[in-house]
Write a structure and sequence with these properties.
With 195 residues, the protein is mainly α. It is 31% helix and 2% strand. It contains 7 helices and 2 strands; from the N terminus they run H-E-E-H-H-H-H-H-H. A two-stranded antiparallel ribbon has the order 1-2. The longest helix is centred in the C-terminal third of the chain and has 15 residues.
């Protein structure tokens, strides 16, 4: 994309360029360090992506931490008395990110809710299903000759679920995660100088 835009600008400097893209799922590909709840574990550590970029807590956060820089990984060295000392340098996970934003109450690691408590689940059945479908789509390398069939069920499931059904859903609806742009968008706007 970078090369094509630069070539087109050189070949037609007096023209206004318009690029049209089809609806391929590959065009929604995010950068490796993009904010994506689908790459995150609910709890800290594990095999989750640990190269996610830091972000600024959105200004629409109602809990006073708005505007603060938030890392998606723990520091490589944590104080000896830190609750998450054993996760040094690893991904924080959805639960810790939400706790830091004040969106859910903090609970010490290893603490389990009783069967009768109102603790929010890490991931509900609808979100698990959506995550599985999206990860399968991200793994597919599209064939330009194949026809893509749109899945309208996913959109209707997104609309039907409550915004606080689980921790994964709450984080996915945060402004900084919602506003993550695809690589195609970023490259196009960067090369054209629009962003």
């Amino acid at each position: 994309m970078k090369v094509v835009i630069k070539m087109a600008e050189r070949m037609h400097p007096e023209k206004k360029l318009v690029f049209i893209f089809d609806n391929s799922s590959a065009h929604n590909s995010l950068a490796k360090n993009a904010l994506s709840v689908n790459k995150m574990n609910v709890g800290p550590g594990g095999k989750a992506a640990s190269d996610m970029r830091e972000t600024e807590i959105p200004v629409d956060n109602p809990h006073g931490s708005r505007g603060k820089i938030q890392k998606m990984q723990f520091d490589k060295v944590l104080p000896e008395d830190h609750l998450y000392k054993k996760y040094e340098g690893q991904a924080k996970g959805i639960k810790v990110i939400l706790e830091e934003r004040g969106l859910i109450p903090a609970t010490p690691p290893g603490t389990r809710a009783s069967k009768h408590s109102n603790q929010l689940p890490g991931e509900c059945q609808i979100c698990k299903s959506l995550k599985r479908r999206k990860s399968k789509m991200e793994d597919v390398v599209p064939n330009p000759q194949s026809e893509l069939i749109e899945d309208d069920d996913e959109d209707s499931e997104d609309e039907d679920r409550p915004s606080n059904c689980c921790m994964r859903c709450i984080l996915s609806l945060q402004t900084d995660f919602q506003n993550e742009k695809s690589m195609l968008y970023k490259v196009s706007y960067f090369v054209l100088g629009l962003d």
